[in-house]
Amino acid sequence: MYRRRQVENGNARGTRCITSQRYVGGNGTTSIKRLANGEISRYKARLCAKGFNQTEGVDYTETYAPTTRYDTIRVLLAVAARNNLDIVQFDIKTAFLHGELKEEILMEPPPGITTNTNIVCKLNKSLYGLKQAPRCWNNKFTMFLQDNGFKQCEADKCVYVRNQDDDLMPLAMMASSWKKTKSN
């Protein structure tokens, strides 16, 4: 299940590992989601990297990803209240799985996946558990917002503003959760 989903999403592919190459461990979790009556609604699996094995300067160089300052959130809420704006909060599911990796990261397959000897996963995109995953996600989403007409605020790098047809739309990022205000 892990392998099929990760290959479909373009997150990883199998590659041969040379014994001198470094790689991080892999782990997977599975769960069964049930309806209120106990009937199975779906099966859920998540592939995680054991990022605690990563070495700074070798496996990653930057981990910093900004988050909105509380002062900024208070100002945005005050402006929204004063101008009778709608506030919308949304969460981006599987956010960390969309970040593009700059480093070459090799990961051993998680327990339960049988492969030939010396076969590891070469990660193309970030995974939960990697130290650089928040930064990769932040960079990816910043590019998406800029491509869609948002400008990054100089005072707080997690606030983006788009002004279209005299309709001002600020957007504030908190980890992978976003708050957006807009006029009716």
Percent range of helical residues: 10-25%
Summing up helix and strand content along with how strands pair, one would put the structural category as alpha+beta
Quaternary state of this entry equals single chain
The H/E string reads HEEEHEEEHEEEE
Rounded to the nearest angstrom, the radius of gyration is 20 Å
Kindly state the mean pLDDT as a whole number?
Answer: 81
Task: List segments where confidence is low: pLDDT < 50 over at least 5 consecutive residues.
Answer: none
Number of strands: 10
Number of domains: 1
Beta fraction = 35-45%
Largest sheet: 5 strands, antiparallel
Strand order of the largest sheet: 4-10-9-8-7
State the end-to-end distance. 44 Å
What features would you describe in this structure?
The protein is of the alpha+beta class and 184 residues long. It has one domain (2-182). Helices cover 20% and strands 38% of the residues. It is built from three helices and ten strands; from the N terminus they run H-E-E-E-H-E-E-E-H-E-E-E-E. The chain has helices spanning 2-9, 70-82, 133-147; strands at residues 12-16, 25-34, 40-50, 86-91, 100-107, 119-125, 151-152, 159-164, 167-174, 177-182. The strands form three sheets. The protein has a five-stranded antiparallel sheet with strand order 4-10-9-8-7, with helices on both faces. Strands 1-6-5 form a three-stranded antiparallel sheet. Strands 2-3 form a two-stranded antiparallel ribbon.
